[in-house]
Each structure stands twice: as C-alpha cells, then as structure tokens.
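Note to self: keep these together.
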Amino acid sequence: MTDTETFADHPVSLAEIKSDRSRSAKDWTPRDALIAVLRLIDRGELHPDVLVISFREKHADGETTTGYRSASPDGHTSIGVLAYVTMQIASGADGVLPGLGGRQT
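Structure:
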C-alpha cells in the first residue's frame, strides 16, 4: 500500500460481519478491528482527533507483552480517552463504531 492508497474500499471480512451481528469483541481479530477503523476514517465517516491503540501479544514461550501507540496532543488526553473507554467496557458497552450499526458517546 502506498501513501495514495486507502482502506476506503477494503472488503469487509467474515469476522467483521460476525462481530457486527454478535456485538462481541471476541469475534474480531485485531487486524479486522484496525481495518474497520481505517475504512471509516478513509471514507470520511470517522474523524478522530485522538487515537490510542493498546495491544497484547502472546509469545510462544507463554510470556505476554503489552504496548500501545498513541496519536494525541499529550499523555493526559490519552489517559482520559482510555479511562472513558474503560468505563464503557465495564458498563457493557459494545464499542460500536459509526457506520457499523450504532454510536457510542
């Protein structure tokens, strides 16, 4: 993919369709979730001013590592976004994105 290519027309995966129907995060793969967000951004349907991506990786030896990438004006803003999303997850919110059947506020 070059800088001029976008995910706007990237096909929807079967896992994404299944997750959209079940409203369950367990049906997504991390890649599917990222592509779904990129598709919405590239179509102009989602306009994030802050993005925080956290991840966990399980290694063959049984160890796990965690990390994150952040596009944010500062750490305080990133922490605030993470805290709000943590509250949504704890309250049972389904994390639906605009264009995927609903909207979380």
